[in-house]
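Student: Hello, beginner here. Can you help me understand the protein record under this note? Any guidance would be welcome.
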Amino acid sequence: YHYPYSMYQNCLVVKSQSLNKQRTYASLAEVLMNDQISLSYILRLVIGKERPDIVKLHLEIGHWEIDTIVGKRKGKEAVVLTLVEKVTHKFIAIKIRRKDVASVKAALRSLKIYYGSQFATVFKTITADNGTEFAELSQLERYGTMVNFAHPYSSYERAQNERHNRIFRKYVPKGKSIENYSAEQILWFAEDMNSLPRKSLGYDTPDDLFEAYLDTA
């Protein structure tokens, strides 16, 4: 994978995704002071690593893609955190307060509590884009979950997540405020998606396949 941070003549070059520009800093410390991004996130982007081959083969259950869906005010209000499992197509949607690190951490903490000792079995890997709301996602590795980041501007590397987000938009159309929906409604939309038989799954449902996996995990 290629990341938007690189070393050049002993400096750290930071490319801005939103402005399509780059800024050069003398050290990681200077980036932290100016961009207010966590050290763990920067090190993850600088060092990086390829996703395991098993993830790309779509044969093993437990590999997820993560994203956020914004509403009317583009992240300045409630957003939806989404995750999709690559084999079963199990889809998780959680309403969170903002498109920020704290809100993402709170949602993932609730998943950690829900799945308990099975968390690392359910979430073997998670692949995110380079949004700053995922700046501390790598903290999940303390629980045994490998975290990876896709190339900038490469949504095709999280194709299933992008596809499921488009399906989710049938329930929450673009331009509609997420504030209009309760947390329970967001959960129900995801469960409705998970209850639909899929031709790609041999007409099983995501829920059927995922629950069968949990029973044997």
